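Methods — Computational structure assignment.
A single polypeptide chain was analysed. Its primary sequence is given first, followed by the predicted tertiary structure written as structure tokens.
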Amino acid sequence: MPTVLYLRGWRLHFYSNEGNEPIHIHAQKGDSDCKYWLDVDAYEIREAYAYNMSARDTREVRKIILQHFDEIVEAWEKAFGEQA
């Protein structure tokens, strides 16, 4: 499970066996867990799922992902190769 970022208690990571999926990131903090798809061309993110997430948690994770979008994409490409 490569960890990309650890901010504000959120661990943003990939699972090592997900290289056949489009670019995405998982975020986990305590019992809260979510996954976001990254659209590199449109520079947008889309929620794939969210468990035990408050509205505040969702806003915080979205903000972190958008602020570190390029870093996440670079980490994905390093881990799995370019697939965007």
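Note: The first strand starts at residue 3 and ends at 7.
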